Amino acid sequence: MPDWPYIDSLKWARRFRSDLPRHSLQFLREVYGIEENNAHRALDDVVVLHQVFSSMIGNLTLDAVQKLLQQKHTITRMPFGKHQGKKLADVPKNYVSWLLSSGAFDKKENENLKQAFEKLGHL
Fold first, then answer.
1. CA 114 to CA 59: how far, in whole Å?
2. What is the pLDDT of residues 91-119, one digit of tens each?
3. Which domain does 60 fall in, by range?
4. Which of 23, 41, 47, 73 could bond 13 through an S-S bridge, CB–CB 3.0 to 4.6 Å?
C-alpha cells in the first residue's frame, strides 16, 4: 500500500454499512440513488466512487474518517464471504475453521474478526 494517507472505501462500507448484504460499488450506487453510468470504465468508476463515498461519510472530514477507521470496534456480523451479513454466532464453525486454515485470520485487517470468533468459542 502507498505511504501516503488513503481511505479504503470498501473497508468503510463494510464497517459502517454492515446492514447491507453487499458492498460493491455498483450495489452502493443503487443504495444511494446515484445515476447509472458506464461501469468498469476507469473515469466513470472514479466519479461514482466519489459520489458514493461522499454520501457514505456525510459531513465528516477526511481526518475524522481516518480516525474512525483506525479505532477498534466490535464485530457482530460476518464482513465478507458466503456468510457475509450473518451474525457471527450463526456462521458455521466449519467455515470458521476453513478461514483459519486458509490464512484469512493472518491478515491484519481480520484481527478483530479472529478475536470475535475466539470470544464466541468458534476457534
1. 32
2. 999 999 999 999 999 988 888 899 999 99
3. 9-70
4. 23
